[in-house]
Amino acid sequence: MAEPGSSIIPDCCVAPWKRHIMLQLRQRDRTQKALFLELMPAYNRLLEKAELLAQFSEKLQPEPNDVTSTTHQDPCWEESGPDSDQGPSSPILRVKWQQEEEGLRLVCGEMAYQVVEKNTALGTLESQLEERQSRLAALEVSAAQLKDAREQLAKQVEALQARNATLRTAYDTLRAHRGLQEAALRRLEEEARDLLEKLVLRKARAAAERNLRNERQEKAKQARVSFELKKAAKRAVSISENPDTLPDLVREGVEIPALAAEPVSLESEGCEKWKRPFRSASATSLTLSRCVDVVKGLLDFKKRRGHSVGGAPEQRYQSLPVCVAARLPTRAQDVLDAHLSEINAVRFGPNSSLLATGGADRLIHLWNVVGGRLEANQTLEGAGGSITSVDFDPSGSQVLAATYNQAAQLWKVGEVQSKETLSGHTDKVTAAKFKLTRHQAVTGSRDRTVKEWDLGRAYCSRTINVLSYCNDVVCGDHIIISGHNDQKIRFWDSRGPHCTQVIPVQGRVTSLSLSHDQLHLLSCSRDNTLKVIDLRVSNIRQVFRADGFKCGSDWTKAVFSPDRSYALAGSWDGALYIWDVDTGKLESSLRGPHCVAVNAVAWCYSGSHVVSVDQGRKVVLWH
């Protein structure tokens, strides 16, 4: 190090070996100074304590002036007598010094006690310091661990971000692909809609052309029949009682009328005219084409029922009513509390005088319609669950019912107990209908199946798997129609295993009704509408709705009138609504005995009576 008075020589003028020595000396100074950095504060504290102790010791030592003043002021000195220059006596001084020594001892004891307390406090602080240092070390270790964990999490976050970026890229790609697919789907839907419209228009044109052709053929047939009738009316014919002359008349070209109920006589006075022995009020209003249609329908009806499934000849059913014009009901004639709980189904027999009702009390009541009243006929027992549907066979001798007991049951009219149980469904059976013979039936269930049955052997001949709950079924010549919970009506060919057609409707289908000519289908659905479907073109022809009309349940039944002129359905508020099928307008609404939802309605085959049943156990006969 340089002397205080020496001058500082710049480093640039110093030799390298001197610079090296100076650097080493500076390094040594810094090293040794670092060693004394902790000692110097401790030394300074010791000096301060020493100074403090010195001050305490100075205060404890008595000063001479104090002793002198005390001696002068002490009365003992005044009592010493004439020798004032002499000092105090030794006993007095000893006492004095003892008192002072005692005071000093007390002060020293207090200070020692304070020192002990300070040492105890210092030990406590040192223990706290050590504890805090240990906590600090533990926290430093935890901080290091957390730092490592943070680094690992940061690496994971980076990996996840990279993965998210990859997934986002893939998502954007898929989204763009989806947009392309949706655009393609929209184009295909538009094309399908256009094709469907074209197909509907083509079917409509074909149907119009076919109808026009049929009308022309019908007009030609009517003209030919009129001409033949006029020609036959102008000729005088004598009918002999001898049957051998009948072939001669046939050879001569004379047509003998086949519709006459009794023998006719001819009068030849100027212009010969036919005389009918009987003419009904309804027959006077019929046109010739209507008569031809009625007779053709009768012949087709008997022809369809002429043979059973096995080919054995089946009996021809007598007294088949033909409704020329249905009569609109206007008032309630009879009201009965027929069952113990709500009534779900009602059906007229083929002769229009026998009525069947089924309800949740597991009973089927048969009623006779006599003079505008319902008279109890019989109660059919043995059903395993609530009755959801009833139907008569074409002869009116058997009753088929669908139940919630996963089966349909068959009764013979006149017998109380069930004749057969058609089991095989795995859920509630919602519909059971006869086909066009008494030996075959069809059932629909909530287990998404429709089954065909051979009633002669109580055997399921076919099971059709459908895609939704089946709420109702109807049967035609070679077709089965089912209404479903997925808002669709499906058509099944009895001779094939596949669905031939699907017609979508708005709302769950609650019931189906097929017209007697099998050309129109009436459906009721939970969108509170009735729809008439023209089966010739497979298109919805009419949609019926009315203010206040609302389906009360998933099994609300609607029916055609026997002549297909009207559609009838019951509403949730107990009212009956009747629409005109030709005009599509609401013909009338009937209110009266029903106070709750009407579940089902039935229109007798003669067209004279209507029966409705509700959730409040009531059966109402309307006329």
TrEMBL record:
Where is the protein situated, by its record's location annotation? Cytoplasm, Cytosol
**PROSITE patterns according to UniProt:** WD_REPEATS_1, WD_REPEATS_2, WD_REPEATS_REGION
GO terms for cellular component: Atg12-Atg5-Atg16 complex; cytosol
- Matching InterPro entries: ATG16, Autophagy-rel_prot_16_dom, WD40/YVTN_repeat-like_dom_sf, WD40_PAC1, WD40_repeat_CS, WD40_repeat_dom_sf, WD40_rpt
Subcellular location, principal? cytoplasm
Which Pfam families does the record match to this protein? Answer: ATG16 (PF08614), WD40 (PF00400)
Alphabetically sorted, this entry's keywords are:
Coiled coil, Cytoplasm, Protein transport, Repeat, Transport, WD repeat
Q: Which GO terms describe its biological process?
A: autophagosome assembly; protein transport
* Entry superkingdom: Eukaryota
Q: Which residues are the signal sequence here?
A: none
What's the family? Belongs to the WD repeat ATG16 family.
Protein purpose: May play a role in regulating epithelial homeostasis in an ATG16L1-dependent manner.
> What is the protein named?
Protein Atg16l2
Give the organism, scientific name: Orycteropus afer afer
